[in-house]
Design a protein that fits this description.
Radius of gyration: 17 Å
Distance between the termini: 12 Å
Oligomer: single chain
Largest sheet: 8 strands, parallel
Order of helices and strands: EHEHEHEHEHEHEHEHH
Number of strands: 8
Number of helices: 9
Keywords: Hydrolase, Metal-binding
Protein name: TatD family hydrolase
InterPro entries: Metal_Hydrolase, TatD-like, TatD/YcfH-like
Strand order of the largest sheet: 1-2-3-4-5-6-7-8
Strand content: 15-25%
GO molecular function: hydrolase activity
Number of domains: 1
CATH architecture: Alpha-Beta Barrel
C-alpha cells in the first residue's frame, strides 16, 4: 500500500518516528508521501526522505500559512521541485473554515502553486474546505492556460466540485473520515467517483479511522481506510488496495517502483 499523505515532520512524531514507520511497514505500507505544509519546513521534510528510501515528498505551503509566504515565487517552488524525490506540488488550496489566512492571500498562494505544477509537470495536491465553488473556478480557469495534474486530497467536498474535478482529470484521495459514522455525505459523494480516480491516505497524525478515532493517526492504520472504501463498493481490501496503488503510482509517476 501507498500512504499518499503523511505529515511525518509533525510534532506528534518527534519522539517515535522510527517506531511509527516500523509499524507501518509491518502493516504493509511500502511507500509514503511526506507532505510539506510550509516552505520553511521543506528541509525538515527532506531530512526524513533522505533517511528513508521508501519515502518521497512534496513542496508547498498549506493555505493556513499563505499569509506567512506572500513573497514566495513560482521559481522558488520550481527550484525545490527539481529534487528527484520531490514528486508533487503542495499541499495548497483554499480553506475558509478557520480563516487563518485571508482569502486573497490564499488565492495568490494557490495560483503560484498551480504555476509551479504546470511548469514542472508535477501533480498538484489540493486542500479545499468550505471553498468548493472558488476552488473549482480557479482550477478550471488555470487549466485553460495549460493542463496540470490534480489531486483533491482528503476529499470531503460536494458532488459539484467532484464532477468539475473529474472533468479536469482529477484524482481524489480518501482518508479515515470515510469510516466515521457521521460521514454519510462524504460516502455518498465518494461512492459516485470512479475507482480508477481514487487513492488512499491517512493524513496522519490527524483523522485516525475507526476503530482508532480520537487517537493519534499513523500510517499503519491505512488498511482501515482501505476497508472503509472496500465496504462502500462491496469489494475486498486486497482489490481496493491494488486499484488505489496503481492509481497513486500513475498520478505520482516520479515515485520509483
Amino acid at each position: 500500500m501507498f500512504d499518499t499523505h503523511v505529515n511525518l515532520h509533525a510534532e506528534a512524531f518527534e519522539d517515535d518516528l522510527e517506531d511509527v514507520l516500523a509499524r507501518a511497514r509491518e502493516a504493509g505500507i511500502k511507500r509514503f508521501l511526506a507532505i510539506c505544509d510550509r516552505f520553511d519546513n521543506y528541509p525538515k521534510v527532506r531530512a526524513i526522505v533522505e533517511a528513508n528510501s521508501d519515502i518521497w515528498n512534496t513542496v508547498g505551503v498549506h493555505p493556513h500559512h499563505a499569509k506567512d509566504f506572500q513573497d514566495l515565487t513560482v521559481e522558488e517552488l520550481v527550484g525545490a521541485a527539481g529534487d528527484p524525490r520531490t514528486v508533487a506540488i503542495g499541499e495548497t488550496g483554499l480553506d475558509f473554515h478557520y480563516g487563518y489566512s485571508a482569502e486573497a492571500e490564499q488565492v495568490a498562494n494557490f495560483s503560484r502553486h498551480i504555476g509551479a505544477a504546470r511548469e514542472t509537470g508535477l501533480p498538484l495536491v489540493v486542500h479545499t474546505r468550505e471553498a468548493d465553488g472558488l476552488t473549482a473556478n480557479i482550477l478550471e480557469d488555470e487549466y485553460k492556460n495549460g493542463p496540470f495534474g490534480i489531486l483533491l486530497h482528503c476529499y470531503t467536498g460536494g458532488q459539484e466540485l467532484a464532477d468539475r474535478g473529474l472533468a479536469l482529470g482529477a484524482y481524489f484521495s480518501v482518508s479515515g473520515i470515510l469510516s466515521f459514522k457521521n460521514a454519510k455525505d462524504v460516502r455518498a459523494v465518494i461512492s459516485k467517483i470512479p475507482l480508477d480516480r481514487v487513492i488512499l491516505e491517512t493524513d496522519c497524525p490527524y483523522l485516525a479511522p475507526m476503530p482508532y478515532r480520537g487517537r493519534r493517526n499513523e500510517p499503519a492504520y491505512l488498511p482501515y481506510v482501505a476497508d472503509a472504501l472496500a465496504d462502500l463498493h462491496g469489494m475486498t481490501r486486497e482489490e481496493v488496495t491494488s486499484i488505489c496503488e496503481y492509481n497513486a503510482l500513475t498520478l505520482f509517476d516520479k515515485v520509483n517502483i
